[in-house]
Amino acid sequence: MTTHVLTVVTDAHVFSGNSDQNYGGMARLAIADATRSGYVYFNRPFPLKVSIVSATLRIYQYGPATGGNRTVTVQRANGPWSETGLTFQNRPGATGPAATRTQGDSTQDGRPWTFNVQPAMQQVADGADWWGFRIIASLAAPIFFYSKNANVGGFMATLEVEWSDAPDAPTECSPTGNQAVGIVRPTFRMDYTDPSGEDGVQGVQVQVYEYDPVAQQTNLVVDSGQVATDLPEWASTQDIAATARVLSWRGRVQDTAGNWSPYSALQYFLRIDKAALTLTNPSATVYTPTPSWSWTWEPAVSTDTQRAFQILVVDPDNPTDVVWTSGKQMTGATAFAMPAADRLVLVPGKQYLTILRAWGTVLRGATPGDTTYVEVSRLFTVATTGTSTVSSLSVKAGQPFPSLEWQTPSGSTPEEFVIYRNGRTIAIEDAATLRVSGTTYRYEDRTAAPGTTHTWGVATKTGATTANPVAVTGSVLVEGVWLYSLKNSDVAFQLSGGAADPEPMSFEPDEDVAIVTGYGASVPVMIATAGGVREPRRRLRAMLKASDLDAWKLFTAPRARTVGLMLITTVLKVQIYNVVTEDREDLGDTIPVSFDMIVVG
Predict the structure, then answer these.
(1) What integer pLDDT is reported at residue 552 of this predicted model?
(2) Strands 285-286 and 374-382
(3) Is 420 exposed, middle or buried (0-12, 13-18, 19+ CB in 10 A)?
(4) Is a pLDDT exceeding 70 seen at residue 58?
(5) What is the distance between the alpha carbons of residues 97 and 330, in angstroms, rounded to a whole number?
């Protein structure tokens, strides 16, 4: 909505007693019956074709009003006039709807007279000529109103108009651009732009056309009529056309002031059914951690061949939780197998929902209820079956990682073993790589959390089928210490050499030192600020230069990261473990003692 309050631009009155006299310069307008009429003019504040919501004319009484009740009538002037040239003889008449106001006698100077001139101003907005208003009264005795020439602030005639612009014609429409629609009752969407930025949507109208090549004419096949809605879209309630048709449509929107926009330009689109997509695999139960998919694509038109697909595996209780996806594969292939690199993703015994999406070569536009792809889904469960030939499964803690060891029957030739921890697959290994000797196999679990009870399982895998696992429970014990930084500043770690050689690495700590003993630790670990170990660093440097460099192994550790240590020999030799994979390769090299943070063993 837009509101403007305008002040009178020109005004004058005429008198039949002096029919050739101009009264344009007077300080007051004299209004009576047909013998005395006044004229006021305001600039038109609004563009054409808008909706006039309200329009109020206010004129102000000049001096007292006597003679009893009188009715003042306002209408549009039906011809041009000028303030300096208007006379009774050349005065224009009046036309259009009249606005009236009746009041009695009053001595109040400046008493307002208000008139609802909305119908008259709507005619002007619709294109009627605008020459201002003519004012007459019902009594012969005149009543006087302030003229602009009185130059009295607050008493000049005003015209207050509120209007609403018609919305712009929609330009962003869907479907469009010869895109295909796959359903018989699509949703037609368009943009909405209100020039004043204040009105919402109140209605839409959509018309759908089909070209008849025989008659060489375009026929209207669907007209929604004026539909009440607060969104600039229409979900078709009628079938628009059978498949394989060329169609066009246009739409318009109505704002809350009742204004209709012009129709949009014609938008061309195709009505082509989507292909029939049938998922043939996986079945409801799979016995492998790397299932395969296969499907068929049967298009509605021969030109719509499959060009891409995507497979998703999601949690059926939370479909937005994507467990695995193939990514969008730009190929017409109708089969796909989960890569071996992803074989640890799916959990045995759990049900999943798989979703297959496929795209065709026909260009489609996405609208509500009509995606650009075809989609099918199916529930499946990852299961195990049969009895594993695994026996005598045991777990050994520490050293420095827990290891699993088991037997298989003499003469058996397992292809692969599947290793589980706490119900999840952690490895699938070739049997040959795990064989220790004869029918004995061993697997070292390098990622198990220390100090925690775990349940491991081992199953044989032959081809795509995994047998039921054999389970064993154990706890990982750390035979070393845990070190961690207490400050963001430089920190040095020192591991005592123990009774065999305590002196080279011992020192008196200052106030910032903490003593930490970890899981199963037999040797305390001193953690100190850099200042507290300056002297030991110098002594250590001298020792390394002296002779026995091979007896030492030094490792770096990122500041404030937890690092596990394992005491391998009784004196001055340690190994770091429980370190993230990307750091492991950097931990085997001997490094300078001058690092900000060192672990010495």
Answers:
(1) 28
(2) parallel
(3) buried
(4) yes
(5) 69
pLDDT at 256: 85
Domain end point (choices 381, 408, 438): 381
Cβ burial 390-413 (10 Å sphere, 16+ → b, else e)? beebebebeebbbbbbbbbeeeee
Instruction: Spell out where 282-334 has E strands.
Output: 285-286, 292-298, 306-315, 318-325
User: For position 535, what pLDDT does the model report?
Assistant: 36
Regarding whether 431 and 320 lie in a shared domain, the answer is no
Establish whether the linkage from the previous residue to 402 is cis, with ω within 30° of 0. Answer: no
> pLDDT confidence of 172, banded at 50, 70, 90?
very high
Question: Same structural domain for residues 67 and 157?
Answer: yes
- At position 573, the amino acid (one-letter code) is K
Same domain, 466 and 517: no
Degrees (nearest 5) of the Cα angle 512, 516, 522? 140
pLDDT at 489: 31
Structure tokens at 294: 């296969």
- 18: phi then psi, degrees, rounded to nearest 5: -130, 75
- Same-domain pairing of 423 and 571: no
Domain total in the chain: 5
Question: Is there a single domain that holds both residue 98 and residue 177?
Answer: no
* Residue located via tokens 């002031």: 257
Q: Structural domain of residue 232, as residue ranges?
A: 173-271
Q: Of 164, 187, 220, which residue is a domain's last?
A: 164
Residues 309 and 435 both lie in one domain: no
Average pLDDT of the chain is 79
Top-confidence residue, 349 or 135: 135
Half-sphere exposure of 552 (CA within 13 A, CB side): 23
From residue 439, alpha-carbon distances to 411, 445, 460 in Å are 8, 20, 13
